[in-house]
Specification:
heterodimer, A: mainly beta, 7-stranded mixed sheet, 4-stranded antiparallel sheet, B: mainly beta, 11 strands
Chain lengths: ~110, ~120
């Protein structure tokens, strides 16, 4: 499973929306209907933190401005209105089967 | 709440063995979750190393499998990573993480990470 992301760098304006794309080389859709695709945010100087699991479910404590969508091989993470605290590197990861693999990351910073 | 804490030597000699421990606090390690090691370097980004279940069942990255062993100590609530024959390419920040079974192994809890440098 090779994970790709675009863009790799995303300057954003606070209050504006932002979108990150993630693509898998193979489908992440299981027969149970779940897409085994998770999103993480690594803020500067911190460990990665879980944002979205199974493609579209916000993790506990994640603001509702974050949303995930997509199925199969193509997924999108959207921020409806970017805030200054959202800067960092966003990673997608496939968890359909080991070895789990991460995308290269999308660096989001403020314009 | 559940917390993970990595510990181990920050400097390992080439051809030596890297050994790290991840202490789990706030919950028993014996609760049916998967426990993973992930490393991060500028060259490789985030790289999953392997995981262990409370029963001792393991999965490893094929690229590292020949050099890596992950074990678990349910009595003392920690799991560990051993990597032998290390080279400079193994220099990285090493994280331990919980793969939440209910979230289909999403890593919902991470340690703070520990930098391991391979150098003589």
């Amino acid at each position: 499973f090779v994970m790709t992301q675009s863009p790799l760098s995303l300057p954003v304006t606070p209050g504006e929306p932002a979108s990150i794309s993630c693509r898998s080389s193979q489908s992440l859709l299981q027969r149970n209907g779940f897409n085994y695709l998770h999103w993480y945010l690594q803020k500067p100087g911190q460990s990665p933190q879980l944002l979205i699991y199974l493609g579209s479910n916000r993790a506990s404590g994640v603001p509702d401005r974050f949303s995930g969508s997509g199925s199969g091989t193509d997924f999108t993470l959207k921020i409806s209105s970017v805030e200054a605290e959202d800067v960092g590197i966003y990673y997608c990861m496939q968890a359909l089967q080991p070895p789990f693999t991460f995308g290269p990351g999308t660096k989001v910073d403020i314009k | 709440q559940v917390q993970l804490q990595e510990s181990g030597p920050g400097l390992v000699k080439p051809s030596g063995t890297l050994s790290l421990i991840c202490a789990v606090s706030g919950d028993s390690i014996n609760t049916g979750q998967w426990w993973s090691w992930v490393r991060q370097s500028p060259e490789r980004g985030l790289e999953w190393i392997g995981e262990i279940y409370h029963s001792g069942s393991t999965n490893y990255s094929p690229s590292l499998k020949s050099r890596v062993t992950i074990s678990i100590d349910t009595s003392n609530n920690y799991f560990s990573l051993n990597m032998n024959s290390v080279t400079a390419a193994d220099t990285a920040v090493y994280y331990c993480a919980r793969g939440n079974r209910d979230l289909r192994r999403a890593f919902d809890i991470w340690g703070r990470g520990t930098l391991v440098t391979v150098s003589s």
